[in-house]
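Raw record, unedited: Copper amine oxidase-like N-terminal domain-containing protein
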Amino acid sequence: MKRYQRVMVAAGLLSGAFTAGVYAEDVLQRVDAYLRPDFQIVLNGTAVQLESPALVYNDTSYLPLKELAQRLGANIYWKGDTKTIYINSRINPEQRPDEQDTTYEALELSNPYSAMMNYLGSDYPVLLTYNAKTSNYGLYYREKDAKRMGIDTSGLAKAKDRLTNETFVHEKELQKRWRQAPKQVYASGYEAYVIADELHPKKLGLLRSHIKGMTLIKYSDVEYYTKPIMVEKDIDKTDTYKFLYLETVRMKNVPVPQTRYKLAELRLTQDILNPDSYTVNITNTYDLLLEADKREHPEEP
């Protein structure tokens, strides 16, 4: 029989029953369980590779809650002082499909940034921007982030960003639907950008270190400055991330610097001999202005 890795797990079990309105105390009990990396996970018909293997205890399989919830479109929040796990679905059950004949306001990124926003007790990564195409003051939320927060965006006025080709909703429109105003979360060691959906501390550190090294790169008479905007984990590809940033190029004897919004694909590669070691590489880089021109003029070479 094939051996499987055996682990000891602290499981929270409720002792006793409800009597006279008094709840029994939680008791921690150590149990035997088994890690099953051979288990195959198929989500909505597609095989997925979870970073943490399934765990089996008493013939019941346990999967990593936060990682699985993200793939299902939910957000998990742990509140340690009350020992409570909050599970919020991405979209309200009553949300209707978006109208097919939506007319979009023209939008082009202006001072975009990412932030963790707290909404109804949970923290969500959000891409926000102003609009360079209009005098309409105020922030625009990326629509898919608003939906992830559980905000119904159907029927609201929307804007389509020319560069990313993504849909945004002005905060005044979202106010019609949200139950409270989201508040930005400032964590210890706060960076001026968010890495969304990555939970592994070491991987987070490697990504931040690599991005920091991209801040200023010099080649002869050319300097490249990188301003990170947002990093998002690609859940369809293992250890792959989409990196949105603003690149400023300064060249000697050229008075005006060139600025471009770019989207790069970052990939972590695991060392075969040392599984705890990774290298970070950029596998693809796209100039978003050039990509927008291709979409708008597909007939041109």
